Amino acid sequence: MAFELPPLPYDYDALEPTISKETMTFHHDKHHKAYTDKLNEGVEKDPALQGKTIEDILASISSQPPLVRNNGGGYWNHDFFWKSMKQGGGQPSGALAEAIESTFGGLDKLKEEFNTKGAGQFGSGWRPAGRCSRGCSAPPIRG
């Protein structure tokens, strides 16, 4: 099974003016496509990976060769990235806002630390954020 570039869940201009149509087109059609193509290249080289889902591959990502590890993560991250955005955005509220305040000292401090750590990641510096209590494989923002 070859991995395919998933379509955006909205039009290329849906996030304007925050993200331009040109940026979305380039990032999806060139950048995400490159992750897709390189992932397929890596999977083709390893018969044990052929026919597996991206989730199956990611379950053992640390044991995969760099071509699959870097591009498999990029492939999945971008699909998640597109699905996570919506027009208008917003500010954190409730328990999330309280956790950001108590952990980082506010949203601006979180963004600063997040961007600094993200710049050191493979790829374009984009980094997922989440909270987990066990079984985490992504390096924490703090740590």
Short synopsis of the structure:
With 143 residues, the chain is an all-alpha fold. It has helices at residues 21-44, 54-59, 66-84, 94-104, 107-118. It has two domains: 21-84, Helix Hairpins (Orthogonal Bundle); 92-143, no CATH class.
Describe the structure.
This protein has 143 residues and is mainly alpha-helical. Helices cover 50% and strands 0% of the residues. It has helices at 21-44, 54-59, 66-84, 94-104, 107-118.
Provide keyphrases for this structure.
143 residues, Helix Hairpins, disordered C terminus, 2 domains, 5 helices, mainly alpha, globular
Strand content: under 5%
Overall domain count: 2
Q: Architecture of the largest domain, CATH level 2?
A: Orthogonal Bundle
Order of helices and strands: HHHHH
Helix content: 40-55%
Mean pLDDT: 85
Largest sheet: none
Walk me through the topology.
Elements: H1 21-44, H2 54-59, H3 66-84, H4 94-104, H5 107-118
Helix pairs in contact: 1-3, 4-5
